[in-house]
Amino acid sequence: MTATHKSVWLSYLIPLTLIRDSSEFNKDIRVVVSYGKKKLLVNGIQQSGPMIEGFWNFAFSNVSLPTKQTVRSILVLGVGGGTVIGKLEVHYPDAKITAVDIDEAIIDIGRSYFGLSGKPHLTLVAADAKTYIADTHKQFDFIIADLYIGRDIPAFESSVSFIRNMKKALRPGGHILINFLHDSAYEKRAALLRTRLREEFTHVETAALPYNLFFMAY
Predict the structure, then answer these.
(1) Residues 55, 35 within the same domain
(2) Are 23 and 100 within one domain?
(3) What per-residue confidence (pLDDT) applies to 12?
(4) Within this chain, do residues 33 and 108 fall inside the same structural domain, yes or no?
(5) 98 and 18: one domain?
């Protein structure tokens, strides 16, 4: 039995930590195997794995996704363990994906542990999402904002300037999907984000889970 097979087998008895790291942006980054599945935990909060995949399955099933024929380029703000990237690869197999994360350590873990290396259609960029979206001259058919720093979401995500910069980076007819927090501490910010999206876009949809609130704007 190889070490890898042994680790998978043991993970059914007790969660196993494959790597523990830290960075300038995140104090505690771990890749854990539990019940044979790898998970990314950032500052104690799960950011990939079966639970996160379930969140994205819910979102993709409960908002008006752009059609496969209209999506050739996608921007993902926030890489994590690449769960949403995997979903996009299935839904839009012909699309080019650019994925941006402020933390290069997260990108390296995505490459090493979550299959994000060696993909000719995927470009990984270490950059601040706020700066990237303000400075980019590229345009995309679909933009996804998944900007979690552990349990927190940066305040700029609900700002007028960030929303307008995302809109500027959209091709005509493009869509934006935002993964936001759904709890009392973020209630006012979520309401503000909804209002500002409605000021900029003709259609704004929401899909709510107990802890996540998804906004689709187009």
Answers:
(1) no
(2) no
(3) 53
(4) no
(5) no
State residue 109's pLDDT score: 97
Please report the pLDDT score of residue 3 as a whole number: 43
On whether both 149 and 205 belong to a single domain, the answer is yes
Mark whether 34 and 79 lie in a shared domain: no
Residue ranges for the chain with pLDDT beneath 70: 1-14
CA distance 50 to 171: 32
- Which residues touch 131 (CB under 8 Å, ≥6 apart)? none
Tell whether 100 and 178 lie within a shared domain: yes
pLDDT tens digit sequence for 41-53: 999 999 998 899 9
Give the DSSP H or E segment for 199: helix 187-200
DSSP string, 54-115: HHHHHHHHHS-PPPGGG-SEEEEE--TTSHHHHHHHHH-TT-EEEEEES-HHHHHHHHHHSS
Residue showing tokens 């994205």: 56
CB burial class (10 A; 0-12, 13-18, 19+) of residue 197?
buried
Q: Do 62 and 170 belong to one domain?
A: yes
Q: Which domain holds residue 132?
A: 50-217
